[in-house]
Every structure is written in C-alpha cells, then in structure tokens.
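Internal tracking record. Fields below are filled automatically when a chain is submitted to the structure queue. Please do not edit lines marked as system-generated. If the sequence contains nonstandard residues, flag them in the REMARKS field before resubmitting.
Queue: standard
Priority: normal
Entity type: single polypeptide chain
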Amino acid sequence: MLRDRLNDEMKQAMKARDEIRLSVIRLIRSSVKNREIELRHELTDGEITEVLSTLVKQRRESIRMFGEAGRTDLVEKEEKELAVLLTFLPQQLSREEVEALVVQAIADSGAQGPKDMGKVMKAIMPHVTGRADGSLVSVVVKEKLA
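SYSTEM-GENERATED OUTPUT FOLLOWS
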C-alpha cells in the first residue's frame, strides 16, 4: 500500500515538475529496493516505514551538522527533503504520548531502574518505530527509569 502511494506520488511529482519531491521519492524507492535486495524479499509497509525512519534520522543528523558548520544553503535543502520524507511516515507521536507508552512498557517489562533500559527499549520500539524519534524515546526512558 505504501509502495503504491510512492509510485503515485512519483508520477504526480513528475507531472508537477517538483524536482525536490521527485528526487526524495526516487531516493526512498532506491533505499527500499536496496533493502529488498539485502533481505531477499519484498518489504512490508512496516519495513518500508523503517527505511523511511532511517532516512529521516539521516536528514536530521545532516541538518544538525550543516547547521554547526554554518552551511545554511545545505540546511535548507535537507529541511525540504525532511519535510517530504515526513509526509510518508505515520503521524508523529507527541512527547506526552511517548511518555505514556514508556510508562506502559516499564510496567509490562517489570523494569526496576536504569540497568533495565535495554529491556524497556526492546519492548517499546516496535510500537513507536516511524512514529517517534528514537533519541526522544531514549531520553524519556532514561527519565522514567531514573
């Protein structure tokens, strides 16, 4: 279903001559295809979402690094690409929603303190992949376990 949406959006971007959107969609399709070759099977929507999450994480890191280097031209380009990528991900969770999920994961896993962070992260990540930034989840888990 997500694959079909990517194909449709690519056609629309071609017709509209939207170069940035078209290049980002091509990047997504290429990354998905590479992952399929690596795994030797067609990706599910969940696996495509994981690929998208990786691309979003890369863009955010690039924005941070280019910002530190004072390259505003590259920051703008990466931000535009990030905006396109985010349109293909599910609605992002707010911090409050992440906190509620973390509290539930801590209760379900029986975590007692900071040493159980890995157990909590393992329990919560399948529920938030593509819907929340992993670094935000990590920070919230640390806060709740401290």
